[in-house]
Amino acid sequence: MATTRRPGGRSARVQAAVHRAVTELVVERGADQVTIPAVAERAEVNPTTVYRRWGSIPALLAEVAIVAEGGAPAPTGDLRADLADFAEWTLADLARPGGIAFFRAEVAADVDDRRAGLRECLKRTSATIEALLDRAREAGHEPPTLAEVMDRVVAPLYFRVVFSVPGTDAAYARHLAHAVSGKPESR
Amino acid sequence: MATTRRPGGRSARVQAAVHRAVTELVVERGADQVTIPAVAERAEVNPTTVYRRWGSIPALLAEVAIVAEGGAPAPTGDLRADLADFAEWTLADLARPGGIAFFRAEVAADVDDRRAGLRECLKRTSATIEALLDRAREAGHEPPTLAEVMDRVVAPLYFRVVFSVPGTDAAYARHLAHAVSGKPESR
DNA sequence: TCCTTAAAGCAAACATCTTGGCTTTCGCGA
DNA sequence: TCGCGAAAGCCAAGATGTTTGCTTTAAGGA
């Protein structure tokens, strides 16, 4: 989305201000309380500008969510450790202020708009996992499949965060990862 | 919510009409396009009535979602078969017209309102699974834990439906169930 | 430096949702 | 059957979000 036809000074400033405003408002009030007029006011930008550039709240949130996402930890080749780190990072990403709020907003959005945010999110996660598994293969391990990691690590974490299941912490995230990376572990 | 102080004819009629209208609109347009005025018009009821009785769209959707939910299949005691049936039913429930839409609406709702819908949903699912596991125990099996079923069957199904992961069908649901009920199965 | 024009700003019309005061209906117990 | 009162209906005011036509600003190339 940085590919605008005139990315220079003013547009960039407006975009930055709007992104910051969205993040702040999502954190403060939750994604469903964020309106375009509110964002515009916080960013000291004209509402019309936001309407014309982004069109809708879901589109705006999707863009901000993608930009805001931090990088996953680099895989070392130690499958067990890498998966555990990945799981912990995924949970941290969801649990960070506004993290799950962005997810909620994308989940709630209309079907057409949805694809942009959710598809992108899934693609990124898949790529991260694949990189991790490739790295493990290079190191001579026999890793689980992408689907297994999705089903047994990522999905439970999302599910538990969305439903606010108690006891969903870093240790549990690692536990899920360990269960899929070979020898299970009691807890 | 059926515990109103005057559940007789008119109130009941209004409630039924509103429920029907909500369901229809969710299916037709998606949950995020459903507004109280639209529901009221469809139900041929005064908007003020809906505002006063339900207050907000999330509250209304939560009530409708709970009422609309069909009953899970009765457990037979055959753990493997019961879990597979349960998984397939869960997926069917999510995939039914408007099924995931209700979930989306609840996920998106504000934190306070959310508890009502999501907590209830989780509680019901837990109870269903527990019943199934108890039945299996009676029959002499040694079933997995509630958390295991949640993490490895329910969570992946929700995740996959929300993200529209291809290949998420009844067979896959059963595959997930089988993987957790003892001997895994290739696919 | 100057010119072109993409993008931001402004203001007013517009649509829509929400709320409040009041009246009317009608379920339900006496 | 009658009367009370909970709940539904009506309408108008108010608030909020959205769109539109136009003007102004300032990147970026000539």
Describe this structure in words.
2 copies of one chain form a homodimer. Chain A has helices at 9-29, 36-43, 47-54, 57-68, 79-95, 99-108, 111-138, 146-162, 170-180. The model of chain A has no long low-confidence stretch (mean pLDDT 86). Chain A has 2 domains: 10-55, Arc Repressor Mutant, subunit A (Orthogonal Bundle); 69-180, Tetracycline Repressor, domain 2. Chain A has 187 residues and is mainly α. In chain A, helix 4 packs antiparallel against helix 6. Chain A is elongated and about 55 Å long. The N and C termini of chain A lie far apart (44 Å). Chain A binds chain B through residues 30-33, 104-105, 107-111, 118-119, 121-122, 150-152, 154-156, 158-160, 162-165, 176, and chain B through 30-33, 104-105, 107-111, 118-119, 121-122, 150-152, 154-156, 158-160, 162-165, 176. The first copy, chain A, binds a DNA duplex (30 and 30 nucleotides) through residues 4-11, 14, 35-37, 45-49, 51-53.
